[in-house]
Structure formats: C-alpha cells, structure tokens
Amino acid sequence: MAIEQHKDVESGYLQQPFIQPEEAAACEEVGSDKSVENGSIGMVFLSTLVAVCGSFTFGTCVGYSAPTQAAIRADLNLSLAEFSMFGSLVTIGAMLGAITSGRITDFIGRKGAMRISTGFCITGWLAVFFSKGSYSLDMGRFFTGYGIGVISYVVPVYIAEIAPKNLRGGLATTNQLLIVTGGSVSFLLGSVINWRELALAGLVPCICLLVGLCFIPESPRWLAKVGREKEFQLALSRLRGKHADISDEAAEILDYIETLESLPKTKLLDLLQSKYVRSVVIGVGLMACQQSVGINGIGFYTAEIFVAAGLSSGKAGTIAYACIQIPFTLSGAILMDKSGRRPLVMVSAAGTFLGCLIAGIAFFLKDQNLLLEWVPILAVAGVLIYIAAFSIGLGSVPWVIMSEIFPLHLKGTAGSLVVLVAWLGAWVVSYTFNFLMSWSSPGTLFLYAGCSLLTILFVAKLVPETKGKTLEEIQACLSSQR
C-alpha cells in the first residue's frame, strides 16, 4: 500500500488527471508531459494495482500476529517467549530481505524481484498453516518476513519508475494504503476465523500478484539501464498509450542512463561520497524517524495497550484501529501531490506527538490513581489520533521519497541500506516495546512523542520537496544543493 474506483480507468483513459500537476518549485522544468496528456494511463493504474498486491501481502503478514496470539499459544502450547520469537522473526527475515533486495531487483528486474518475494511469502504461509510446533511456525514467519523485506523495496521503486511525475506521489502512496489495508483485513479476519485459516487467506494476494505480473510491463527505466532498448520503448509505449508521443520522455531517460553508464558500479562504501551523502542522510534519516515514533510497538500491541488502560477487552479498540487506517492513508494519497511531501510529513509527525502525549497522560493518570474514569477514553483517543496521523503521512511519504531521491545506479545499494534501516528500526521498537512499557508506560509514550518532535525538525532542516519533479530533475536538485 490503489487509488481506486475511478471509472475512467476501466476504459483506460482519463480526460484530466485526478491529481493535478504542480509547477516545480526548486528546479527548472526539463521534461515533457505530452505523453501523459494525450495518452492512456490505464496501464499505469493496472500496473500499480498489481504491484500493490505485494503491499497487501506485506500488510497481512505484519498484521497476522496481533489477532492470533492467544489462539496460537493455546493450540501449540507456546510460552510467551516462544510466541515473542515468532512475532519478531518477521522483522529479522525482512532485514535479510532488505539487504538483498536492491541487488535482486537490479539483477533480475522489478517484476522478477516481485516473483521471487512472492514465492517466499507463499512458502512461509504454507509452513504456518501446516505447523505442528514452534519450529515450522518460526520458519514460516521467517520466510514471509524475507519476502516482505524484498517487497518493501521493490514495490515503491517500481511504481515510481512507471508513473508520470504528476501522478507519482499519489500512486506511490497506494503502497502504504494497501499495506494498512492488508493489516486491517488481518485484524478483522482474525477476530472471526482461526489462525490457520488466516494463514491460508494470506495466499490470496500472493496468487493475485503472480497472475497479475503476467499482464504488466517491466519498468522502462530498468530495461533502459540493462540495454534492452526495444523492450524499453515497448514498455514505455504500453504505459503511456499506443498513440502517445513518448519521444521526449524516452530521450530524457536514455540520456540519463547514458550518463550513468560512465559511472563505476557502486558498493556500500560509495554511498559515503560527498555527492551521495545528502541523499543517504535523507533516506536513512526518514526511515529512522518513521520507526522511532513507535509505530511497530503501538501497532503490534494495540489490544494489550487498551486492556492495560482499563478496557475489559481490546477487540473493539483494535477494530477501530484497523478501520481508521484506510481512510486516512487514502487521504494522504490524495494530498501527496497537492500539499507536497514535506508539509504532509510534518503535520503527520505533529499528530503522532499529540496522540502519544494524550495516551501518555492517560497512563500517567492511571499510575497516580487520578481521574480513573477518563483513563480508557484518553488512551483510546490518543492511540486513534496517533494512528490517523501516522497513516496520513509518516507511513507512506518516507517510502515515496526513498524511491525518488537516489540516482538509478545507486538504487540497489542505497535502497537496500534504507530498507535495512527501516526493518532494523522496526525490530528494535517491537522487541523493546514491552520492556519499555513495563519500565514506564507514560515514559515510553512520552519518549515516542519526543521522537515525533525531532522528526519535524529533521524534515524542516534537511528534506527537500520532490512534488511535481521527474526523477531526473530531483537528482539535478540534490546535486545543486550539495
């Protein structure tokens, strides 16, 4: 997690883009949008829809452990430590997936990487479904984790590379939209079906992705990069429409690729070169900020938070959590190319600060035995504000910017590093959350609130606006600001 249900997509044509282009603020316009104005973008929407089936798989995997904890522990006689290992293995697998994602994506293409990752996810879900003990359960969780580690990189990169610049932000945000939709579906289904059936349901988006990949083109930029010029022209023509004029866009991409060909192959240490440091700091910093506000702790243990706040059951709050993510993530997708990336992240971080502050106050009151009747109300309100705010910006914008800021020859190496940081942060937060809450519930939430304020400062000082620019223009902007 598409920006869905637009009737014109069915016929393959739009009279006007549903997200209007904006004039670039920092760099002079060098590209042409003629191919988009006069052509079909139906294939762009179809390709995005297929790709985000992988994002939906991502969401179902991340959301699987929360509603199934009690049932799995009872059925397989697992201790809390064994189930905690099961839950954390998804992030460990994802970290390994992140390390290899860039190289896999550069070597076999964006579609090939999606096929590989889906194969791991299918293997993992089947292992979970047939589990009789902790070993096969853990292996299944690790395999699904590896698969979504690759997916978390390749899907936003693929969408960014196929989308016209005036739609890129909104379409890329569908990655996060389908992630939260998948998580919400897992939360809701997990309340009505057993854990084995929920694992089986996880196969559905995997199969949809494998079938859909047969009908969509490879990334034109990747095809150009590996020298398959005829296929590059064909893919770009399919994406922009049979009768669209793609000459300007194709020439711009080929010129950029020709420049890249003169550069040596990159290694991890190459990211420390002065000309790339700004992009690396932005990508790594945004992912660190995204995780430091505590989303994986609050998200994984929502039900326990509500129960700890005094609710008799966490189920109602968990369902509300699941339902609130989707409309706010969709709102973020619509706002992405209207308000811009920077304002959206800063408003989102301000909202997570407010939500953590309110929830922290609730637990502080509980610890002091003050206004106890208000504690559950404040806790639920704080968590829901937090989730709404995170969903509208912090959940999606870092992934969009990550897919935009690195030059093509660095995307494999730098993308792997950035996704690794994201999953390492996810593991740290999810692993330490229960320990921190045992130490001090209000202190933990106030800590996340402080990280939200630091996020606002980081974005205001270092992150550029990428709205309305081609990927090549973004590189020109970053180079000029060194």
What does it look like?
The chain has helices at 7-11, 34-37, 42-62, 65-76, 80-129, 134-162, 165-190, 195-201, 203-212, 220-225, 229-240, 247-261, 274-292, 295-300, 302-308, 315-339, 341-367, 375-394, 397-405, 411-439, 441-462, 471-480. The two termini are 32 Å apart. Helices cover 77% and strands 0% of the residues. The protein folds into two domains: 33-262, MFS general substrate transporter like domains (Growth Hormone, Chain: A, Up-down Bundle); 266-482, MFS general substrate transporter like domains (Growth Hormone, Chain: A, Up-down Bundle), CATH 1.20.1250. Keywords: Membrane, Sugar transport, Transmembrane, Transmembrane helix, Transport. Its main location: membrane. Belongs to the major facilitator superfamily. Sugar transporter (TC 2.A.1.1) family.
